[in-house]
Structure formats: structure tokens, C-alpha cells
Amino acid sequence: MIESTSNPAIAVKGELGRSIRTGSGRRTDRKNRLRFYNRAFRIACIASAVFVCLILLSILFFMFRTGVLTFQTVSPAKFFFSTDWSPENESYGAFVFIFGTVALTVLTLLFSVPISVFVAVFLAEVAPLWLRNLLRPILDLLVGIPSVVYGFLGMTILIPLLRQAAGTDLADGILAASIVLSIMVLPTISRISDDAISAVPKKFRDASYALGATRFQTTFRVVLPSARSGILYGVILGMARAVGETMAVVMVIGNTPQLADAFLKPTSVLTSNIVMQIPNVPFDSTWNYALYMMGFLLLAISLLMIVVIRVVQRRGAKR
Amino acid sequence: MKKWFKSLGVAAMAIAITTTGVTAAGAASSLSGKIVINGSSALLPLTLQAANEFKKLNPKVKISASAAGSVTGPQSVRKGIADIGACDWDASMDVPGFKKFDGQVANRVAVIPFAAVVNKNVKVDSLTNKQLADIFSGKITNWKDVGGADADIVVVNRAFGSGTRVNFQLKALNGVDFMTKGSNYKEVKSSGDMKTAVDTTPNAIGYLDLVYVSGSIKALKINDVAPTEANVINGTYKVWGYGYYMTKGQPTGATKAFIDYVQSAKFQNGSLKKLKFIPLSAMK
Q1: Are A170 and B189 a contacting pair at CB < 8 A?
Q2: Which residue among A43, A88, A143, B284 has its CA within the 20 to 30 Å range from the CA of B111?
Q3: How far is residue A152 from each of residues A101, A109, A228, B191, B202, measured CA to CA in Å?
Q4: Set of chain A residues whose Cβ sits within 8 Å of the Cβ of B189
Q5: Which residues of chain B lie closer than 8 angstroms to A279, CB-CB?
Q6: Are B103 and B133 part of one and the same domain?
Q7: CB pair distance less than 8 Å for A254 and B187
């Protein structure tokens, strides 16, 4: 963000000089005043940017500082690879939750990405204009629905349906959670992909049709590859939302610290376990530190994704 | 001008108090201070109601109340963040999973009954303590073993650290450990989630504060005694616990006055009863 301020600054400087030359009245006063305002504005912007960075870094530092205390009593190997999470017996193995988070995210993407891309293709390529203008605001609205609502609907409608379909007693688990999450991230991914596809120049399509390609061939061989980086950007944004989502997941995942070795088995992920236990955790206990460490892991995963986003963007800009 | 209004207000209140004949409150209204309360969410409605009434009597006392979970109550008191820690169990003694808090005094403020609840499709009406313990520890997994239909039992539990869980474990399950794994076992975050989960899951069993039991879920008899306020008071229904205000040492000043107010007959038999808690005096 800081780097992008340099260009406008130069532009403003040029503007400034011209206005002084053409202006009338007491030149030096106006020049000094403008210079002062411009400099103050610049400093305010830089200060804000630095402030935000400081907040982010201090959050990271605080989470890590508290979380790392876990390893005073629990070995890192046990924390990362043991599946036994029972705070009542001083046993803190977070593998169940790490695995659950990764599995849930992957499954969510498997469900949501193909559907989202088809929705995006439909919106950008197939739908008539009036339908497109109707559907886009609806998808934008869906992004704004609070996640608790999705969770409650999942708990009261989706889970009984799954229970009937599968014939099990409880249908809470990875499958229910990933369906709920897929519905949540679908509007995000499809709207961003839609924008990316719409931005592909018309001449690409015209050239493809001129060579005798069908609409299917044009879409999948020409348009989608051209919009690839934009679509990937949407997928990563959706993935970041899926990883960090808590309220909806906690209502349908079952919250049992056991490995998710079946789709319909109650299990737990990083976010749901933190939100379940944080109200009841004693301060200054290994249990508390372990929860902070899990929070830090989540932050680290999100940050990693943001880095990936930047890399993808840069590569897209180069082409 | 502002000061003048204030003193006028105090004078008017003093007159109002003396004329209505509440002599004790006349002395207490000079009380000032700040009380911070944190802890159990089950006790929060009671605390808020009491704080409102107490503030009317003692306008100079500032009270702020919040709730995060039972164990945060005595913890906040130990750290010095709160003056009163509301807790669903006596935190000055060891309970399963939680060590005692040294130097804290437990002040009883209310009686909270609990009930084992099942989904409406379950045919069983009554269970013994032994049967409940076997179900929640995972030894009995089918309703037909306790006189119901041939169906798997789905156990819904509160997360470790919940005050309701501690009380239910101590009073209904004779302290037996809960099961922690299985495909028919899940945990929920709050009393509200427990209610929804048991309500929407066939063959489910769970437990709740009695005040939450309503609608289509069914409260079980324990040892053939129905969970009613009358049965708690006459001593036949054993699954209940005291709600406590934990303080660092014996309470003093405004904190003591507030706890005294909550324990007073006026509050116990009035607002506390209306909130469906049971007055302390009924248990003696």
C-alpha cells in the first residue's frame, strides 16, 4: 500500500507547479499553503498505513507469544501430531483440528469451485442481459447474510435431510459443514470469477468463433484460461473465508475431538474448538496457551493465503 | 446548577425513602462504590435484575455485570478484574476438572434445578441415576436396554467447563466421567444450542437448566421423581445446585451490601422467583 502512494505524489507535484504558474495573486502564500496541505495529507496516509501494519504485527506477536508457552509443558511433536485432545487429562494434541480444518477446506473447494465457475460462466457468457442484471445483485446480497443464519439453517434443515438420506443417527460432521460453507462461499467465488470472465476482451471470443470453434470450446479453451488469475483470486478469497468461518461451522460439525475419518462423523476444527472452549478456559493454563497456539495457526494459514493472492495478482499483471 | 439539581434529587429520594418506611435503605443510600461482576451466564439474568433494583436504592453505586462462563467468575476475582465471580458450583472446593480457588468465599445466591431431557420421539419417561450414568458414559447405547424402542441413543453434551455440566455430572451421574468419542456423540456450546439439538435430533438425550425446558422436548423423571420446583423444594428431586457469588475473602462495603440484597427475603421471594430460580430459604 505504501508503494502505490509514490506515483500519485509525483502526479500531484506536476499539477501543483502548473497551478502556481497559472494562478494569480500572492503566489508564495498559495504555494506554501498547498505544499503544507499536500505534505500533511501524505503524512496522514503513511501514518494510517503504518498504524494498520503495527496492529497486525502486534496481534501476530501477541498470539505467538501466548501460544508458544504451550510448549513449556507439551512437546511440539505431541501438539502437532497427537490426536488426543482432553484438557481434563492435561492432554493437548491438536492434530484432529488441524486435519479437520484442512479436510473441511479442501472438501468445501471441491464442492464450491466447479459450481461457482459454472455460475460465473452462465452470468458472463450465457444469461440474457435482464437476467444478468437480476442475478448479480442477488449474489451480492448473499455475501452479506450473517453466517449464524447459514449455520442455523444447516442445523435445522440440512442435517435432518442428511440424516434421512444416510440413515444415520447423527449427521453432524465434515460433510454437513462443507455443504454449508460451500453455499456461503459460492457467491464470493462466482461474483469475482464473473468479473474476471467479463473482463476478457471481446476480440478473443471473436477470433475463436472466426476459427469455427463452438461456444463450449471458446469458453473452456479461450475465455477461462484468459480469466485464470482472476478466478484463482476468487477461489483463494473464498478459501480464506472457509478456513476462518466459525459460527456456521460450530453448529453443524458436532464438536467432538475425534479424527474425521468418515463424512458423517461428528468432529471438530480449529475455529469451532476455540469458540467452544474459550469461555470456560482457566487463564494462565496450558489449555489456554494451546487455544492461543491454535489461533496463531489459523492466522498463519490465512496470512499464507494472502501471500498467495499477492503472488497470483502479480503474475496476472505481468501477462 | 447541576450540583443543585443533584442535591435536590438526593433530598427528594431521601424523603421518598423515609416516607415509604424503608428505614434500612435510608442508611444504605449513602453507600458508594463500584461493583464488577463476571462469570456464569446462567446467573446473569438474576444478576442484572438485582443490579437494576439495587441501583435504584443506592444511586451512588456503579454496577457492571457481564458473563462469559462459570469458571471465568472465580478467575476474574483471583486476577482482581472482578469483585464478584458468579459460578454454578462452589469454586472454593475441588470439582471434577477444576481445582479449588484458594482464599475465595462462596456466597449462595440461588437454587438452580437441572433436568435430563430427551427428544419427543423417545418412549422412556424415567431413568435411574445408574442408567443415566451408563448412558452418558457410553456403556448403554440402545434405548431398548432402558425400556424404550430399539434405537441407538444419541448423546448431546455440553463442552468441558460448563457449569451445567459440572452440576449434572455431580448430582445426576454420581460423578461418573462422560464419554468423549463416538459417532453418536456431540457437544454443544450453550443451553440454547442444547435445546435445539435435542429438539431436532431423534433419540437424543441431553440436559438443561429447568428454566430452559419448554416446548416439544421432554424432561425425564429421575428415579421416578418428576423435575418440578415442588419436588426440588420437598427434597425428592436431587438434581439441582446452588448458584454462587465468589468473593476474595469475606465481602465488604458495596459488594457486601449487594450480596445481602440478593440474599434478602424481598429479592429472593420476588424477582428471583419470577425468573424461575428457587429461593434459598425454600431449601432449609
Answers
A1: no
A2: A88
A3: 20, 21, 35, 15, 18
A4: 250, 255, 275-276
A5: 68-69, 72, 161
A6: no
A7: yes
Q: Quick check: B15 pLDDT over 80?
A: no
pLDDT tens digits, one per residue of A279-317: 878 778 889 999 999 999 998 887 887 788 778 777 766
Q: What is the pLDDT of residues A28-52, one digit of tens each?
A: 788 889 999 999 999 999 999 999 9
Domain that holds residue B183: 113-233
Domain A76-318 has CATH 3.90.700.10: no
In this prediction, residues B8-24 reach a mean pLDDT of 48
Please tell me which residue of chain B has the smallest CA distance to A90.
B97
Q: What is the nearest CA distance from B40 to chain A, expressed in angstroms?
A: 10
Instruction: Based on the fold, state whether residues B155 and B256 are members of the same structural domain.
Output: no
- Inform me whether the C-beta atom of residue A236 falls under 8 Å from chain B C-beta atoms: no
Residues B84 and B119 in one domain: no
3-state secondary structure of A159: helix
Mean of pLDDT values over B137-158? 93
Q: Is A153 on the interface with B (CB under 8 A)?
A: no
Residue A10 has pLDDT above 70, yes or no: no
Rounded CA gap, A227 and A316, in Å? Answer: 9
Whole-angstrom distance, CA of residue B255 vs CA of residue B50: 12
When pLDDT is averaged across residues A142-158 and rounded to a whole number, the result is 91
Confidence of residue B47 (pLDDT cuts 50, 70, 90): very high
Do B128 and B222 share a domain, yes or no? yes
Residues of A in contact with B188 (CB under 8 A): 255
Residue A110 has pLDDT above 60, yes or no: yes
Judging contacts by C-beta atoms under 8 Å, the chain B residues touching residue A168 are 183
| Residue ranges in chain B assigned as alpha helix (H) | 2-20, 23-28, 44-57, 72-79, 129-136, 163-171, 191-200, 229-233, 253-263, 265-269, 271-274
Distance CA B166, CA B99 (A): 13
B61 plus B28 within the same structural domain: yes
Å between B75 CA and nearest CA of chain A = 7
**Nearest-CB residue to B154 (from A170, A264, A265):** A170
Q: Name the strand (E) or helix (H) holding B36.
A: strand B33-39
| ipTM topping 0.85 | no
Which pTM value belongs to this model?
A: 0.79
Q: What domain count does chain B have? A: 2
Most confident among B19-23, B152-156, B215-219 (mean pLDDT): B152-156
Query: Measured between CB atoms, does A254 come within 8 Å of chain B?
Result: yes
Q: A281–B185: do the CB atoms touch at under 8 Å?
A: no
Q: What share of chain B is helix, strand, coil (3-state, %, to 5)?
A: 40, 25, 40
Cβ-Cβ contacts under 8 Å, B151 against chain A: 169
Question: Does residue B129 come out as left (phi exceeding 0), alpha (psi in the -120 to 50 range) or beta?
Answer: alpha
Nearest-neighbour CA in chain B from A267: distance (Å): 8
Q: How far apart are the first and last CA of chain A?
A: 22
B12 and B119 both lie in a single domain: no
